[in-house]
Design a protein that fits this description.
Number of helices: 8
Shape: globular
Distance between the termini: 38 Å
Largest sheet: none
Mean pLDDT: 79
Order of helices and strands: HHHHHHHH
Length: 202
């Protein structure tokens, strides 16, 4: 069911309503618009929640302005925890600092991720950067987070295609299998090594 993508992301009564509405017939144009609006609302809610968690972690009030360096650090943590799959609410500042130190080692696309987020931030804060004070308010931080959330999938898709190409070169017979020796060889040569699921340092 198309409603499956929303599982655990919205109240049960809303999910039940969608399921009853859809039944076994799939999505009409009106149903699709309703689901898209619901997903957009949920994404917006999640963005504000994660941003609020980072503000709380660093003991910054949403009413306070943050400078450029603080903003970069906060977005780095949001993206790193997204990659690791961690809950910001459960982090201490010390653990957060360790995650940010280790992410570039664990995730080969980290630097391109940082460049992407900073480019979005620069585009949305152009007027602020031209002013005498380069401080950013919570509303602007929220907008940056939303745009990053909407566009990051495109960045990841390029990485996925690159990984696919690399793996396919290791499988010249087209069997869908890669020898373990070939799979781990890049790590022995000092290059990036494939990892099933990176864990942030304990």
């Amino acid at each position: 069911s198309p409603v499956g993508v929303l599982k655990d992301q919205m109240p049960a009564y809303l999910q039940t309503l969608f399921e009853k509405r859809l039944g076994a017939k799939g999505l009409s144009l009106h149903d699709l618009a309703a689901m898209a609006a619901t997903m957009e609302h949920l994404v917006h809610k999640e963005v504000i929640s994660k941003l609020g968690d980072v503000y709380a972690l660093y003991k910054i009030l949403p009413t306070q302005l943050v400078n450029d360096i603080q903003a970069d650090n906060m977005f780095d943590l949001i993206m790193a925890t997204r990659i690791y799959g961690d809950d910001i609410k459960k982090l201490t500042q010390r653990r957060a600092a360790k995650i940010l130190r280790e992410i570039s080692r664990d995730y080969v696309g980290w630097h391109s991720t940082q460049k992407f987020v900073r480019r979005v931030k620069a585009n949305l804060t152009m007027d602020v950067q031209n002013a005498t004070s380069a401080n950013i308010d919570f509303a602007t931080m929220t907008k940056i987070s939303e745009v990053v959330g909407e566009e990051f999938g495109n960045v990841q898709s390029f990485e996925c295609e690159d990984l696919k190409s690399t793996l396919m070169k290791m499988d010249p017979r087209g069997s869908g299998r890669v020898k373990l020796g070939d799979f781990y060889q890049p790590g022995l040569d000092g290059n990036w090594q494939f990892q099933e699921k990176p864990e942030y340092p304990q």
